[in-house]
Design a protein that fits this description.
Chain lengths: ~475, ~100
C-alpha cells in the first residue's frame, strides 16, 4: 500500500494521476490515527490544514504546474515555526505558542506544494539523544517499543520508520538527524552549516544547528534537499551559494572513490557487533570499486567535551528570550519582575534544558569565559583542521554513526554524561560545519545500524551519490519494523 | 572542577532560573560530572590557536539600514501573556 512507497514513488504516482493528494493525505492521516498511539511520534496532527494543502496540490497537479514534491505528505519536526499551528519545540515553555510566522524551511516546502501532516515529537529544545526529554512524553522505537528512537529528531525518525509518513524534516546540532536515523533504519542528511536557512527554526546552538531531510532513501533526501536548501537573507549565517539539483549526480559511478576510515572511530567504546556491521558495509563499498585508506582525526576525541561547552553556552543565550513576557509560559501571580523571570523559566523548562542553561551560564560567567568558551573555540579549530587535512587525502570519511544500537528507555536518563557519549562520532562533524549522512547498513542485536558518511563542505550531492550507489546494491533501507508492514 | 550547592544557586540566579531547593544537590552532582568531562579540554595546548566562531570563518553579513519589515504589533502581541495599549505588561519595576 501507499505507506510502503518512497517519496519518489509517491511523487510518480501523483504525477501519473494514479492517486490524488487528498487520497494520499487522508490515507496517512488515518494511519497516524490508528498507529501513533503505539509510538507517540507526533505532538500535533494538522489534519484540516493538510487536507486543504492536498486539495490545492491536486489543483496544481491538474493544471500541470506541479513540482516533484507537490501533493506528497511529510512530517515536520516541531522545532520549525509554523504559522497558526502550535510550535512547541517539545517544551512546556512553548506548549501555548502558536507561531505568528513560518520558518523559511516551512515556506519553501509550502511553495513546492508538499503537504504537512503534523508536527513531530522531539527532545525538549532539541537537547537529548533519546527523545526522553520531551514534555509530550517519550517516543518509542518502532523496531522495539521498549527502546528509544534516538534524538533529538526522534519523533521524525519513528514516524518515518513506522511508515506514518514517507519522510520528515529534522535538525542536527550534535547528531540529532543522523543518530535517530541510525537507530531507526533511515537515511538522514545533515547538510553543510549555512546550506539550509535557520530562520524560524527555534535556536538551540546557533553556530551548530542545521536542518535536513530524513527519509528511507538517499533519492528521497535529494528530493527534499532540492526544496529545502538555499540562501536566505533572513538568516545572517546562511551561505550565498547556488543550489545544485541534488538528484543529478545520484547515479554517478563511485569506482575509485577514496574512503577514509578514521582509526579514532573504531576504538574503545564501539560495540563489536556494530563494528562488524559497519565493516561489512565498507567491504561492500570496496566490492563496488572504492579504495579504503586509514586516516586519523587526532583531536576528535575532544569533540564531546568541546561540544558541551559550545552548545550549552549558546543555548543559555538563545533561551534567555523565553522570559514569560512576550510569548510562551508565564507563571501565576508573579510578585516582582525577577520572580516572573525565575518562576516562568523554572516551570517552563525541563530538567535537561535547565542543566544545559546552567552549564552554559557558568561557562560564560565572569572569570570562566576564557577557560571554557575560548578554550573550546580553539579546540574547535583543531578538530576542524583535522578534517581539512583528511580531505586532502580522501573523498569521503566513513564510520559508525553511533557506538551502539538503540538502548532501553530509562537506561541512560539518570546519567547525562553517558547519554552525551552516544553522539561521540557525530558531534565533530557539527563542530567543523561539514555535511554528514547516516544510511542503513544492517543490523546488530536485531536492531538497525547506521553507516556515517562525511563529506567536504557543500558536497551534499556527492554524499547522496555515495549513499544511493550503496542502496542500489543492498536492501537494508527497505526493511520495515515488524508489525508496521501492514 | 566540581560545583557545590552554593555555586549552583548562584548560577541559577544568573540564569534567572528557579530550581527547587530539594533538587539542588542532584544538579550539583550532574553538573560536576559534566564539568569533569569538559575538563578533558585542558589536555591539549592551544596557546597559538585562533578561536573558531564560525565553521567557515564567515563574517556576519551586513545590509543597508532600511526598513524591511512591516509593523505587525497586534499579530505578535496576540500571543503574549499580558498586554495593554500595545505594551507588554510586567510587574511594577519602579515605585
Amino acid at each position: 500500500m501507499y505507506h510502503n512507497k518512497t517519496l519518489a514513488q509517491l511523487s510518480a504516482m501523483l504525477q501519473a494521476k494514479e492517486v490524488s493528494s487528498v487520497e494520499l493525505t487522508q490515507y496517512f492521516l488515518d494511519r497516524i490515527k490508528a498507529r501513533d498511539g503505539e509510538i507517540n511520534s507526533f505532538i500535533s496532527v494538522t489534519a484540516e490544514q493538510a487536507l486543504a494543502q492536498a486539495k490545492a496540490a491536486d489543483e496544481r497537479l491538474a493544471a500541470g504546474t506541479a513540482e516533484p514534491l507537490t501533493g506528497v505528505p511529510f512530517a515536520q519536526k516541531d522545532i520549525f515555526c509554523t504559522e497558526g499551528v502550535r510550535s512547541s519545540c517539545g517544551s512546556k515553555m512553548l506548549d501555548n505558542f502558536i507561531s505568528p510566522y513560518d520558518a523559511t524551511v516551512v515556506t519553501k516546502l509550502k511553495a513546492v506544494g508538499a503537504v504537512m501532516l503534523g508536527k513531530t515529537n522531539m527532545d525538549e529544545f532539541a537537547m537529548g539523544s533519546s527523545n526522553e526529554t520531551s514534555f509530550y512524553g517519550s517516543v518509542k522505537n518502532p523496531w522495539d517499543l521498549k527502546k528509544v528512537p534516538g534524538g533529538s529528531s526522534g519523533g521524525s525518525a519513528a514516524a518515518v520508520a513506522a511508515r506514518l509518513a514517507p519522510a520528515a524534516t529534522g535538525t542536527d546540532t550534535g547528531g540529532s538527524i543522523r543518530q535517530p536515523a541510525s537507530l531507526c533504519n533511515l537515511t538522514g542528511l545533515k547538510p553543510t552549516y549555512g546550506r539550509i536557512s535557520r530562520y524560524g527554526m527555534i535556536a538551540f546552538a546557533s553556530s551548530l544547528d542545521q536542518a535536513g531531510p530524513m527519509a528511507r532513501t538517499a533519492e528521497d533526501c535529494a528530493l527534499l534537499m532540492n526544496a529545502m536548501a538555499g540562501f536566505d537573507e533572513k538568516d545572517s549565517t546562511s551561505i550565498e551559494k547556488e543550489v545544485p539539483d541534488y538528484t543529478t549526480d545520484l547515479n554517478k559511478s563511485i569506482k575509485g572513490l577514496k574512503i577514509g576510515l578514521p582509526k579514532e572511530f573504531f576504538g574503545e567504546g564501539l560495540d563489536p557487533e556494530v563494528a562488524k556491521t559497519v565493516e561489512a558495509a565498507i567491504q561492500q563499498y570496496k566490492d563496488m570499486g572504492a579504495e579504503v585508506v586509514e586516516i586519523s582525526l587526532p583531536n576528535s576525541g575532544l569533540s564531546v567535551p568541546v561540544y558541551y561547552v559550545v552548545a550549552p553556552a549558546e543555548c543559555s543565550s538563545n533561551l534567555s528570550r523565553m522570559d514569560g513576557v512576550r510569548f510562551g509560559h508565564r507563571c501565576e501571580e508573579p510578585k516582582d519582575l525577577e520572580d516572573l523571570y525565575k518562576r516562568s523559566r523554572g516551570e517552563g523548562f525541563g530538567e535537561e534544558v535547565k542543566r544545559r542553561i546552567l552549564i552554559g551560564t557558568y561557562a560564560l560567567s565572569a572569570g570562566y569565559y576564557d577557560a571554557y568558551y575560548i578554550k573550546a573555540q580553539k579546540l574547535r579549530r583543531l578538530i576542524s583542521d583535522d578534517f581539512k587535512k583528511a580531505f586532502e587525502q580522501v573523498d569521503v570519511i566513513m564510520g559508525p554513526t553511533s557506538p551502539n544500537v538503540a538502548f532501553n528507555m530509562g537506561e541512560k536518563s539518570d546519567d547525562p554524561v553517558s547519554m552525551y557519549l552516544s553522539d561521540i562520532y557525530t558531534i565533530a562533524v557539527n563542530l567543523a560545519g561539514l555535511p554528514g549522512m547516516s544510511i542503513p547498513a544492517g543490523f546488530a542485536h536485531d536492531m538497525p545500524v547506521g553507516l556515517q558518511v562525511i563529506g567536504n563542505y557543500f558536497e551534499e550531492s556527492h554524499l547522496l551519490n555515495v549513499a544511493h550507489a550503496y542502496q542500489q546494491q543492498t536492501d537494508w533501507h527497505e526493511r520495515c519494523p515488524a508489525g508496521f508492514e501492514d | 572542577m566540581s560545583l557545590d550547592a552554593e555555586q549552583v544557586k548562584k548560577i541559577a540566579h544568573l540564569a534567572r532560573l528557579e530550581i527547587n531547593e530539594a533538587d539542588i544537590p542532584s544538579y550539583a552532582g550532574t553538573l560536576s560530572n559534566i564539568l569533569e568531562l569538559v575538563d578533558q579540554m585542558s589536555a591539549v595546548n592551544t596557546d597559538d590557536v585562533e578561536p573558531m566562531a564560525h565553521p567557515m570563518d564567515a563574517n556576519q553579513r551586513l545590509r543597508a539600514d532600511v526598513v524591511t519589515e512591516n509593523n505587525q504589533r497586534e499579530k505578535f502581541q496576540a500571543i503574549a501573556p499580558k498586554t495593554e495599549d500595545g505594551l507588554y505588561l510586567v510587574p511594577q519595576v519602579i515605585e
